[in-house]
From TrEMBL:
<dbReference type="InterPro" id="IPR051158">
    <property type="entry name" value="Metallophosphoesterase_sf"/>
</dbReference>
<keyword id="KW-0479">Metal-binding</keyword>
<dbReference type="Pfam" id="PF00149">
    <property type="entry name" value="Metallophos"/>
</dbReference>
<keyword id="KW-0378">Hydrolase</keyword>
<feature type="domain" description="Calcineurin-like phosphoesterase">
    <location>
        <begin position="38"/>
        <end position="188"/>
    </location>
</feature>
<dbReference type="InterPro" id="IPR029052">
    <property type="entry name" value="Metallo-depent_PP-like"/>
</dbReference>
<protein>
    <submittedName>
        <fullName>MPP superfamily phosphohydrolase</fullName>
    </submittedName>
</protein>
<dbReference type="InterPro" id="IPR004843">
    <property type="entry name" value="Calcineurin-like_PHP"/>
</dbReference>
Length: 250
């Protein structure tokens, strides 16, 4: 009986970690920024059924960002059929431009053609050897999962943001020095220990150097999101999150 009670509370804790997202604020100043800009990053949603989309929509409306970026794995590799309805419900909460790159779950999904139809229905801006000019200050570049030839020429007078699902691809790859790189994939290690951080990453490296949060990498800033969901509900000391970036001039 005691074991059942312990198991019950452990499950409740995992649900809490997956349901009650944190809003992380990241403030960045740069001489390249002409006008103050704020945007929200969401990564690794995985059609998280614990997230209350009405509450999420309310919070996003209160934030009122200039645009959104989705850095992959908004679905699962086996998502199809009725899951596409859930995807539509998720995408319908956004009221500004959405910039999106694929993660491994989109890449490995056999129904991705149908998923892509949903993305097109919501006018999602995706990347294929292109970039987007957001305003007088900002350009956004993106590299879909498993693609390595994404080194478009940068316009160095702009603040250049780069979206890539797996941060290790950027860290150990050969990419230009973007001003800000946004990624996910690692889920913050999923299981974390206070003061020690992530226990293991996707490649089964113990106590990885990179797991979640803001890092300085060469001349760039790299943010790794712990995600808004995961395929499995096991999370410890690592609640799901959305990230609000506030960019301002120096």
């Amino acid at each position: 009986m005691a074991l059942l009670i312990v198991f019950f509370f452990i499950v409740l804790y995992f649900i809490y970690e997956n349901k009650y997202y944190k809003i992380i604020k990241v403030k960045i100043s740069s001489k390249k920024i002409i006008e103050n800009t704020k945007f929200v990053q969401i990564s690794d949603y995985h059609l998280n059924s614990f997230i209350n989309l009405k509450n999420l929509k309310r919070d996003l409306e209160l934030i009122n960002p200039d645009f959104f970026v989705l850095t992959g794995d908004i679905i699962n590799r086996n998502s199809s059929g009725k899951d596409l309805k859930k995807l539509e419900e998720f995408l319908s909460i956004f009221d500004k431009e959405i910039y999106f790159i694929t993660g491994n779950h989109e890449y490995e999904n056999n129904s991705y053609a149908q998923v892509n139809e949903v993305l097109e229905k919501f006018n999602i801006k995706s990347f294929e050897d292109n970039f987007y000019n957001v305003n007088e200050s900002i350009n956004i570049y993106g590299c879909n999962y498993k693609k390595r030839n994404c080194n478009l020429k940068l316009m160095n007078n702009y603040y250049n943001i780069f979206l890539i699902h797996d941060p290790l691809t950027y860290i150990y790859g050969n990419f230009p020095s973007y001003d800000l790189i946004l990624s996910g994939h690692i889920h913050g290690g999923q299981i974390r220990i206070p003061f020690l951080g992530a226990i293991v990453d996707h490649d089964f490296n113990f106590f990885p150097e990179f797991s979640k949060g803001l890092y300085k990498k060469n001349d760039s800033l790299l943010y790794i999101s712990s995600g808004l969901g995961s395929r499995r509900i096991i999370r410890t000391f690592n609640r799901v999150e959305i990230i609000l970036f506030e960019l301002s001039s120096i």
